[in-house]
Amino acid sequence: MSRIGVARPKFFLRAWWAALAAMLTVLPAGLAAPSAAAQAATPMPRATVSAGSSTSLSVPLVAAAAPSAGQDAPVKAATTAVADTCAGPLAFGQIVTCPSISGDERHVYTVTTQKHSDVLYATFNEGSGEPLHGDVTAPDGTHVCYLSAYPSQCRLGAAGTYTITVTVDWGGTNDYTVTVDSLKTPSSCTQLTNAFFSFASPGITATLPSGSAGHCYRFNQPLGTVLQMRAPGGDVRASILDAQSQPICSIGDTTECTLNSAGPYRFFVTQFYGDEAAYTLRMPRLSQSVGCPLLRPAAFGDPGANTGIGTVRYDGDLACHKVRTSAAGVVVVRLADSQRLWWDLYDGAGQRICNQHEQSRACALPAAGDYTLVVRNQDWTETSYQVAITALFRNAGCAPATGTAWTVPTVSVRQLSPVGTQCQPFRGQAGERILTFAAPTVYNGVSAWIIDSAGAALCQGYSETAGCVLPATGTYRVVSHLERWDDEHPEAPYELQVRRLSDPVGCPTLTPGSYGADPVGGLAGVRCRVLDVPTAGSYLLKVRDPDNDQLSSTVYDGTGLAVCTGWEYCQFPASGRYTLVVGTAPSSIVDNDVSYAVTYLPIAPSGCTAVGDDGSVHRGQFGVVGEVDCLELPSPAGSKVVRLAPGDATGVANPNLKVLDATGGYVCDAYQLYQYTCELTGTAPFFVVVDNQAGGEPTGDYALAFRRVAAPPSCPVLTRDAAGVTVTSGSEQFGFCFTVPADQHAAREAFRYQRTLGTGEATISIFDQSGLRYCYTLSPSADRTLTCTLPDGPLTVLLETDAVEAAYQVTHHDATTP
């Protein structure tokens, strides 16, 4: 089969031949396959090649870049040597660069190992021509393995001379580099001393040259040592091997490595693709760590001299602190502000016992002694930080105790350090349910939680009920701190309240009030109310401040379960006492001098003012904040009514309306009264609840009218002539009703109104005989023509105007023809 030679990108060959290598790579008979861990630690080959005929060419030979001798000495760059041909003996660590191989040429190299079951670390980099094969055979000619385009490992059999045969596929042309090194007798290997495993060590920085088989390192540490692994950078990988050459863990793929089998230990550092790569090797010891500045647990408040400082340079960099405690107990770890830093705490054996995600509020130190705190940078920029560890198992630095009554003054807390943690004790009885509120005085956030006498954090999981139930009688503490340290306002305090939700003390008790009267309880302070509920069912419940703005609130039953949020209606499941709390977010502080009104009314109105349904105007007044009025309609069940109101009414003059039946059952709201019609369903009599929802306008007057529109009312006839009807509007007249007999309109009729005197605007609506609002103008104007497609039968026409003096002419004509 003929082929056209096409230069292919290196990445294409790597990906294509990687799949082929996975199928072709085999081990010689009698040799065990590498363990699963060893296979996982070795990258998938990106090319494999097969054997061919023997030919050799003259090429330069480059010596491999090997780690320098000495204790933790920097690894030096490779030196250059020259070979006579692309064949012959290949020394460990040498990088052979061959500029060309083509056709049926075979480049044959020999590699001699002095050790039985040695492992070759090999890199075989091909150019952009046709794929190559690198076939390794034993002294007896038995196939051992294929070299791959990734750095790879090849396990040999008996000591002796092995052959590497390079050929080109499909008779094409390519170039390549090849190098091998030995696991058991490497060309050079750097010994890592104890100083290398200190957190204070800068590590080893070196560069792997392109095509290198890798850099070798060896070390010894006690069995069970835990190392903190660091990604070396530059796609560099390595597998740590024990004394039996079995892999323990992979550098670059794991965070921690436990040396769970005996040493001495060795590893080769390789670049994933065999490319040139600079790297930094660091493996500080987590077990019995050294090189970390000392950090002792601090008291509550300013940690002072027990504040640790550090700098982490970039993403993935880390710093450490030796935490020394004289006693077991619970602590909290605080890093300044919300920097992109993570922390983990390890015991003396290198086992992680706490981290910032699962133990951010309480970390239990199981015994006295030394621990290691590791701080990791998750950002790409250098970050300096402060850290403190506060002993929660001691009371040192706590403020004087506070009470849990709702009338107790708010506690002001001043945080004097970016990593300070504050403590507020309080006394509680077993079974009491405690709410905590904490809020800053300048823009910030506050974190607060309850701990017991031993420092254990309580009530940290999700619960459907509010507050924290105290497990026993005793002294508890609220632990708190600012979430961010504000450099512009370092002395700005935050505020804290501790309140008992069960059997609350200091909350005024309210019973249901009356429509059209002052709200129950007036505007007295304290952020809570006890609601005495006489019977189960729905009640109108709203909370408004002196400016008539709605305040958020929640009503709780005796178990701390939220019954309702207090926005309009509250459904009480049983009679009894409930607690209403204003501003129930944990980040809200409502002081005892707060003023607000609680509207607490039975859902079924009573004592309501009677109004007509013939368009007669009712004028009402909201005298105090929180007042809710009610009006009784004369209309029987089945009637359809609409609301009439001044078109220019706004704010308090345009209240919200809701229609209820005699049992308090919902019938319709303001939208249906204005945009459609309201059909009175349920039990008569029917009531209109009138509620002032205008923020900033707690009192004022309003005017309303209602009109029955089903079975056309007895309104004046709107004549079908050029003159039509002229009406005059004013403060006492803003709704006008007309009828159009069935024989006085076409299937398509045009209705026009125009202002002839005065000021203001109007809208018009057309209803059929069943009370359905057939068409209407959406926006008011002084002159408008509304064309409607109409049903048979009589019609009702309503004109609504502003409550100002003006004259309007209303006419209609047949619109079925142009």
Keyword list:
single chain; 818 residues; mainly beta; five-stranded antiparallel β-sheet; five-stranded mixed β-sheet; 3 helices; 60 strands; disordered N terminus
Q: Nutshell version of this structure?
A:
The chain is mainly beta and 818 residues long. The chain has three helices and 60 strands.
Question: Any chance you could write out the topology, listing elements then pairs?
Answer:
Blueprint: H1 10-24, H2 36-41, E1 61-62, E2 88-89, E3 95-102, E4 106-113, E5 119-126, E6 132-137, E7 143-146, E8 152-155, E9 160-168, E10 173-182, E11 190-191, E12 204-208, E13 215-219, E14 226-228, E15 236-241, E16 247-251, E17 256-258, E18 265-271, E19 277-281, E20 294-295, E21 308-312, E22 318-325, E23 329-335, E24 341-346, E25 352-355, E26 363-365, E27 369-377, E28 383-391, E29 411-413, E30 422-428, E31 433-440, E32 446-451, E33 468-469, E34 474-482, E35 494-500, E36 509-510, E37 528-533, E38 537-544, E39 553-556, E40 562-564, E41 569-572, E42 576-582, E43 597-602, E44 609-610, E45 618-622, E46 628-633, E47 640-644, E48 656-660, E49 666-669, H3 670-675, E50 678-679, E51 686-691, E52 700-708, E53 725-729, E54 735-740, E55 748-758, E56 762-767, E57 773-776, E58 783-789, E59 795-801, E60 806-814
